[in-house]
Amino acid sequence: MNQRRTRAFGAWQLVWAISCAVIAGVMVSTHQRPLPTLERAFFVWFLGFLVSTELFSPRHASPGLWRRLRWIVFAGALVVAFITAQAVAEVLA
Known about the structure:
- This protein is mainly alpha-helical.
- 84% of the residues lie in helices and 0% in strands.
- It has three helices and no strands.
- Helix 1 runs antiparallel to helix 2, helix 1 runs parallel beside helix 3 (63-92) and helix 2 (37-56) packs antiparallel against helix 3 (63-92).
- InterPro entries: DUF8044 (IPR058357).
């Protein structure tokens, strides 16, 4: 069970790191033409959500909560991917 918990923690950290890297890359690449306010607000919210979940949610307390959080993170990652694809298309155009 402990090994499974360690793998889950590593996967969560990987999602967090990739999200931060992608968001930072998009912000840097579009600094001359900034992203619209709603997209920037989503990026800030998503990073805040990841950080607050990491810092304030005990994993062992509620496994059901962590299953729901995974779906929220998955949906957020899809939105980040969509915004990133739009930003890349703008930069390449």
